[in-house]
């Protein structure tokens, strides 16, 4: 009789497998059961230190130079092409806004006052109005003598010469400022004027004259 080492069932001699549980029976006679067979599928762990360095340490073979040249190189593009170029400033941007004018300008009375009276305009701001006895201020364009009906405000308009540009702006006058008989200028909104333009201040008509500096 062969005793099964798994379940203890007594099997007839000559059997390879237990009739009780189906386990493989020991080949030795005398009813002694052999130890369970080892699982051949299990992999015996490698000896300490064996192949560990080869797996853990990245291979340097791929980076090794071939004929003195590395197999992989960092791309070295033209850095100047990658950097956006700063556009060169335009001529208008480069020119300072306070550049001196290359001309001289003046206002000439053509109607409603002393016809032919001229008022030279300076670079920068030119106040147009009437002499103020309370403050003693004299505007650059003093139309007090040309305005017997007092239709012109003491601080009526502002003419500004900045470089090659001339603008006029109403500064809150009572009767308004007009250019070339167009609609009344909105206070605080400068309008560009050029040589030959007509400016109406109250009941006084003036003409802008611009002459180049020789």
Summarize the structure in words.
This protein has a five-stranded antiparallel sheet, with no helix packed on it. 17% of the residues are buried. The chain is rod-shaped. The longest helix is centred in the N-terminal third of the chain and has 5 residues. It has 214 residues and is mostly beta strands. Strand 1 and strand 2 form a beta hairpin. The protein contains three helices and twelve strands.
Could you tell me the number of beta strands? 12
Distance between the termini: 139 Å
Return the average pLDDT rounded to an integer. 75
The largest β sheet comes out as:
5 strands, antiparallel
Tell me the helix content.
under 10%
Question: What's the Cα radius of gyration?
Answer: 54 Å
SSE ordering: EEHHHEEEEEEEEEE
Strand order within the widest beta sheet: 4-3-12-11-9
Question: Approximately how much beta-strand content do the residues carry?
Answer: 25-35%
Low-confidence stretches: 28-47, 49-84, 86-96
Number of helices: 3
Structural class per helix/strand content?
A: mainly beta
Q: What shape does the CA trace take?
A: rod-shaped
In short:
With 214 residues, the protein is mostly beta strands.
List keywords for this structure.
214 residues; 6% helix; mainly beta; five-stranded antiparallel β-sheet
What layout of secondary structure does this protein have?
Blueprint: E1 2-3, E2 10-11, H1 52-56, H2 79-82, H3 91-94, E3 103-111, E4 118-121, E5 124-129, E6 141-142, E7 155-162, E8 165-170, E9 177-179, E10 191-192, E11 198-201, E12 204-212
Parallel strand pairs: 5-6
Antiparallel strand pairs: 1-2, 3-4, 3-12, 5-7, 7-8, 8-10, 9-11, 11-12
